[in-house]
Amino acid sequence: MSMLENGTLYHFVGWGSAEDDEKNFDTLCKVLTSKQVGRPSSAGTRLEIDPTRRPQKGELIKQSVTCYCDIPRNELKIHLSKYGRFGVGLDRSQLSRWGTRPVAYVPFMSKYPGGTAGSFLLRDLDALLKGMHAFPLGGPAEKERTVGVPLRSRAEVDDRLESTFYKDFLAFLKFFDGDLPVDHPEYYYAEREWRKFDVVDLELTLREIVVPAAYERALVSRFPQHAEKIRPSP
Fold first, then answer.
1. CA 210, CA 104: separation in Å to the nearest integer?
2. CA torsion sign, 17 to 207 to 226 to 220?
3. Is the pLDDT of residue 60 over 60?
4. Which residues have C-beta within 8 Å of that of residue 62, sequence separation ≥ 6?
5. 75-129: per-residue pLDDT in tens?
6. Between the CA of residue 131 and those of 89, 121, 127, 137, what are the distances in Å?
7. The pairing of beta strand 206-211 with beta strand 193-197
8. Measured at the alpha carbon of residue 150, what is the angle toward residues 145 and 156, in degrees to the nearest 5?
9. Per-residue 3-state assignment (H helix, E strand, C coil) for 153-176
10. Backbone angles phi, psi at 206, to 5 degrees
11. CA-CA-CA-CA torsion for 166, 168, 169, 175, nearest 10 degrees?
């Protein structure tokens, strides 16, 4: 099944505990009970910039995003080795309506220590971010603004440029070593990642629940309303 035919984005719950089936089963049950992916934040959309960290692995930003992969279920095996075998498949069309979109991948090539276009961009971006932190815009940033309303001053333009740079560009940028094998944990391009700020409601998006066959009966017992959506992990 091709990606276009599938129309499903997957979110797996076992990051950092891929082999711990009991823990991941419990996490999946909490997701299904809450009827949402992600945790709501009273602060809403959140971006925190830490200039002491580098953007190479997306570590520079602490952000309230949820992440998904655009991979057909029958090709998920490599992905599951990093994120565990428990997850949900969500309607890509619905997610797209609410701002979910693919990250932009930038390769740097470790075999060329002298530098490549991607590594030059990485260093330049690192310097830019440190400069933006060292020399912030003057005056308080506007707390609320209606999208599309004309800006009234250069200060407002600069404020919106910085906000857009962080939220709509940097938060969706991901570097990866293009010389790594496809099955390497840090070959991020193979994840075909999508991101969305804040939580996702499962009521309108849930298409599949993916679990190992040994857990299907236990899941049906706890969530009989989802029995027809349960699929075995590849």
1. 27
2. negative
3. no
4. 46, 47, 48, 50
5. 999 999 999 999 999 999 999 999 999 999 999 888 887 778 988 888 888 888 7
6. 40, 15, 6, 11
7. unpaired
8. 65
9. CHHHHHHHHHHHHHHHHHHHEEEE
10. -70, 125
11. 100
**180: amino acid identity, one letter:** L
Instruction: Tell me: pLDDT of 164 over 70.
Output: yes
Asked if 59 and 52 count as a contact pair (C-beta separation under 8 A), the reply is no
Interstrand relation of 173-177 and 104-108 (parallel, antiparallel or unpaired) = parallel
Helix/strand/coil for 204: coil
The pLDDT score that the predictor gives to residue 143 is 54
* pLDDT, position 192: 95
Q: Which two tokens stand for residue 113?
A: 């220590």
Residue 110 or residue 4, greater confidence: 110
